[in-house]
Amino acid sequence: MSLLLPLVLLVAAAVLVVVGFVVLARHRSGRSRSGY
């Protein structure tokens, strides 16, 4: 069980970084090259 918490925290941190990067990229340029 002790190994599950660091893994969840790592995944949560990665998701937050990715979401923040996407939000920043979208805010910088309204329509980026990759049209999601």
Explain what this protein looks like in three dimensions.
This protein is rod-shaped. With 36 residues, it is mostly helical. 69% of the residues lie in helices and 0% in strands. The protein has one domain.
Helix fraction, binned, reads: 55-70%
Sheet of most strands: none
Order of helices and strands: H
Principal-axes geometry comes out as rod-shaped
Distance between the termini: 37 Å
How many separate helices?
Answer: 1
* Structural class assignment: mainly alpha
Beta strand count: 0
Mean pLDDT: 83
Strand content: under 5%
Radius of gyration: 14 Å
Whole-number total of structural domains: 1
The low-confidence runs, each spanning 5 or more residues with pLDDT under 50, are none
Transmembrane segments: 6-25
Keywords: Membrane, Transmembrane, Transmembrane helix
Write the layout of secondary structure elements.
Blueprint: H1 4-28
Search tags:
36 residues, mainly alpha
Quick summary:
The protein has 36 residues and is mostly helical.
